[in-house]
Amino acid sequence: MTRDRINPSRRKLIQGTGLLLGGAATGLLGLPQGALAARAATRNTDTVRLTWGPSGALSLLAKERGVFEKTLAAQGIKAEWIGPFPNHAPTLQAVVGGSADFAFYGSTTPALAAILAGSPLVFVQYNVQHPRSTAILVKKNSGIDTVHDLVGKKIAVNRSGLGEFLVVAALEKNGLSRDQVQFVYLNPPDAAPAFGQGKVDAWSMWSPGVDIAREQFGGKDIFFEGADLPFYIDFGTLVSSRKFVTENSALVRAVIDAYAAEGKWANENLLESEIIAQKAGKYSDGVRDHLVGLKRLHRFYEADDAQFLGDFQRAADWLSERKVLPKHARVAEYSIRP
Predict the structure, then answer these.
(1) Tens digits of per-residue pLDDT, 23-77?
(2) Could you list the residue ranges forming a coiled coil in this record (predicted)?
(3) Domains of the chain by range and CATH?
(4) DSSP-derived 3-state class of residue 45
(5) Count H helices, E strands: the chain?
(6) Reduced to 3 states, what is the DSSP secondary structure of residue 129?
(7) Which pick of 33, 212, 222, 246 has the fewest CB atoms within 10 Å?
(8) Residues 6+ away with beta carbon under 8 Å from 77
(9) Using CA atoms, how far apart are residues 23 and 122, in angstroms rounded to an integer?
(10) How far is CA 66 from CA 76, 279, 284, in A?
């Protein structure tokens, strides 16, 4: 794909200004090493390629409303939407493969797994929806009423993602080990029919998939993240490649700010934002109204937010200790504030 380039004089001005501001920010903030990598404001393209899909609530909203694109266009940036993608993992592959510049806001866990496997990805901002509504779902007539009843059963999860870690946490909380259940690794589009057809006994899934499945397949929760898990082990994040962020930190900043504005609109317009999601997801008014009733709000954290990074590090340690992630990761090394 041909990328639009800005003229050299404009680039020099942007970079020079960024060096002055970046140096001042470094002295004031004392950022971690990873967050310093893109402190100089750079921009070497006028086009940004963004992934989107039904699971990427904020990207879907930004694409459908069109305000996001206009905000970037006012800064001389053209937004191109790549997708739809069923979940976060393939968006990471698109960034690594060079067909996209940003994976949409999705689970930190598959992103960390990809990074630990050698992918040159970095986190540029975090976005967490509160309250969390991921759940382990079974059918009402399955005879499964508690987490203990999952022993020997098949559970559909997405590998190294939100679904898998929630099951691990639920088992541990109930004194069970992961080898007492059978994990079936499926992406959401394959997990839904597998659950509906009885090929798996349970499904660990996030909204709106879990909410649709409750209605469509007569499902019930036996473990609900918002009520049964007292801490977060996974967060939403905006991911790009280290090279792109280093070469285009001014553009990345513009994208982050545009997404933050989109999140603010969503927080202030819960029904309207859920109607947009409903149209894309093709689910009932009942599911939509349930989601509106959850009153989920977006909260954004900069990549150098010390308190947030502390929480994220504890989560990453928890995941690596339980082999959801293959090894330990120092999350600040992969977190860059443009």
Answers:
(1) 333 333 334 444 444 456 899 999 999 999 987 889 999 999 999 999 999 999 9
(2) none
(3) 8-131+234-334 (3.40.190.10), 135-228 (3.40.190.10)
(4) coil
(5) 15, 11
(6) strand
(7) 33
(8) 46, 47, 48, 251, 254, 255
(9) 21
(10) 16, 15, 24
